Amino acid sequence: FINEPLKTYSSGMIMRLAFSIAIHSEPQILIVDEALSVGDAHFSAKCTKELKKLKEKNLSIIYVSHDLNSLKILCNRILLLNKGEVVYEGSPDEAINRYNFLIAKLNKSNESIKISKDSSYGTLEAEISKVEIVGEESGSDVLSSGEIGYINIYIKAHKTVKNQNIGILIRDKFAQDIFGTNTYYYGKHFDFDEGKRYKITFKMPFNIAPGKYTLTVAVHSGETHTQNCTHWADNVAEFEIAGIKGKFFVGICRLTPIVDVKTLDIQEKK
């Protein structure tokens, strides 16, 4: 498309071309405003690599973004703005924590998550009324990889139902299943009495890669939700993993290998 008229370009193509020109124009100060949000993952990775090279040359870069992970990668100092005023200036880690608390505070007035009837089904004898994901340190639905998080599921019983199991399923932004389980496999079953409300909590380390994810929740009897489904709520909540606590890793999940070295005292045969 490089020889085609600019008016035939999409907005994403224009942004990519503009960014490519800007980083090769030897500027004294480079201002980047959400430029990495366009294009595919390969383009974003190339942009990040080029910005890091410019940073090593002591070029002044002003980087504006809501992508918390890229802020941690690229920035030495962050200004956090709220309604046009600076509310924090300092290290990326502390700025992101302040941002998470700010978002959590803004969302307190609308904590209940509405479940679309198009993406849920079941007998609704016991209904999922609200779901929230909360980081132990962040206090919000933006967590660091490796941070302990809580999945809180609120249930209202419209009728008395016995021997119920609660299941969770995490999907990435490509709708791929990342992790799923339910209380059946942990030997925990629940009886819900008509008219009462309940809160079930899953506590676990979120050892998955930085990115955005969705959560699906189900109430059912039997081993899976395909058996006597009480309520299946698809994509009922969203959360984000931003940054990594502990040892760096690549891929979609963090394993915890133990590295050992042994000297093999074996002489080679001539």
Write a concise keyword list for the protein shown above.
270 residues, alpha+beta, 7-stranded mixed sheet, 3-stranded antiparallel sheet, 4 helices
Mind sketching the topology for me?
Elements lengths: L10 H13 L5 E5 L7 H16 L3 E5 L3 H7 L3 E5 L2 E6 L1 H16 L12 E2 L4 E10 L6 E4 L2 E10 L3 E12 L4 E6 L7 E3 L4 E9 L5 E10 L8 E16 L26
Parallel strand pairs: 1-2, 7-14
Antiparallel strand pairs: 3-4, 5-14, 6-8, 8-12, 9-10, 9-11, 9-13, 13-14
Helix pairs in contact: 1-2
Tell me, rounded to a whole number, the average pLDDT: 85
Helix-strand topology string: HEHEHEEHEEEEEEEEEE
Counting DSSP E segments of at least 2 residues, the number of strands comes to 14
In terms of DSSP E residues, the strand content is 35-45%
- Distance between termini? 64 Å
Radius of gyration: 24 Å
The DSSP helix count reads 4
Helix content: 10-25%
* Uncertain stretches: 108-116
Q: What does the overall shape look like?
A: globular
Q: How would a textbook summarize the main sheet?
A: 7 strands, mixed
Class per helix and strand makeup: alpha+beta
